[in-house]
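Molecular record:
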Amino acid sequence: MKAIEIRNKYLNFFKKHGHAVIPSASLIPENDPSVLFTTAGMQPLVPYLLGEKHPEGTRLTDYQKCLRTNDIDEVGDNRHLTYFEMLGNWSLGDYFKDESIKMSFEFLTKELNIPVEKLSVTCFAGDEDCPKDEVSANAWRKAGIPEDHIYFYGKDDNWWIAGEEGPCGPDTEMFYDTGKPACGPDCQPSCDCGKYVEIWNNVFMEYFKDSNGNYSKLKQRNVDTGLGLERMTMLLQGKETPFDTEIFEPVMKQIENLQKVDNIQSRRIIAEHLRASIMVTSDGGRPSNIDRGYILRRLIRRMIRHMNKLGIDLSELANLIDLNIDTLNELYPELEKNRETIKSVIIEEKDKFVKTIAHGEREFNKEIQKLKEQGKNEISGEVAFKLYDTYGFPPEVTQELAEENGMTIDLKKFDELFKAHQEKSKMGSDQKFKGGLAEQNEKTIAYHTATHLLHQALRTVLGDHVKQSGSNITEERLRFDFTHPQKMTKEEIQKVEDLVNEQIKRDLPVTCEEMSYEDAKNSGAIGLFTDKYGDRVKVYTIGDFSKEICGGPHVTHTGDMGTFKIKKEESSSSGVRRIKAVLIK
């Protein structure tokens, strides 16, 4: 079964069961300070999981484009991916465990035709905080899962919470038996031996954990599920890795045709990072030295390094991009529309990296000359790491050049510095919902509202070409990215700041209306990422000043927001400016 068939079966199945099919949100998160990219299907739905009313109702389903970079250095093995697609269905205070499990079982066994004996499930074992989840276990028994295929685990395996506090609850996970031999008599889904592969996770949000670690029952109980498309495609096709499926196979085959050196790990890195870079670029991401731009730059440059490693002519990159887009077009039609932009962005970054390598070689030669003059034949780990960290010079190239010059490298010290760098990078790029659902409070809601005022003020002062291209909100400040070709003048910054404060002082009412997307457009509402909206949307109006399509939440009136102060205006990427601002009470 092809990936597109699995996705369509999933969406149609849940549509038949009363779920509204909503579009995938952008990979570039809107107003989420906790992550650089959209990392899970539930992430764009946080306001609704907290109680905001969704315009499409209480039952939702979608496919969500996701990117996680915590395992970026693991890509190249037989399973790790940075970009992946998550299929999901949600109940927002509607059905709960029994109906959710019944539908999951029916989809797996009837729609995907997975034999019951291939399935095992896990449930929460219970502890001093919350009881054993016998409700889920009984639902699985009733559905048809044999008793010896039901397992109970503790909070490490079968409990979900975003951050340290907030909505949380037990989950039940479904596993597929690959048929591989058991690793021993106690082999079960918790093993990492490869016999059992997790395929679906249903989270039951029924508790709230407060800052003191106490649990209480939620008023609105939610169901949040996630099924990985690439993994399910691989298993149903009986393939060993996602790279053997139609999602990657044409590109993998072409890379093999082009290579002069055979290395399966490098082929996988090129194919995976190219797909991820294409998806991020299509959704508006651009390479830079900070935040998500840095991750995109890192993906592209790692891909280029491995093209060099395989001896592939870099002029082939444009053809590989075209082949990738052609391969993915059925899954993501938006790629065709963005084809030329994707190619120009990635190829421009490739050209910059080629220059970086040339610069790095010059710096390397300077260091070699110094060592030769000192009569030394070992390059220190600090120098090798500086070439990598400061000049972007790949460590394997440093090693090759060192060998050509009869030198060695203090690899122990380099590895130590490199691991510390990796850990720092991992912490920065994978802040998995650091405050999560609990981080939506009075301060962040005020900052969210302030982004609407800022957006309209920028359009008033600079022109209607200004469009939001991303935002990041914490309790301390807002960060707002917008399209504009040049640096703002001091006068323009002051005008924008004054205009926002004027609206705050006017104590404007903030109202919300639900309407069709077409009616919203016709009413003059601004849409930020137009391809993400469903048939019905929420439109937030701030007095006579601002009107935007948005999920919310917002303040009810502007008067108590405080004084708006722009702290910095700077470049974010080519053609995109960034404002950092605070609300002072």
About this structure: The mean pLDDT is 90. The radius of gyration is 26 Å. Residues 129 and 274 are 45 Å apart (CA to CA).
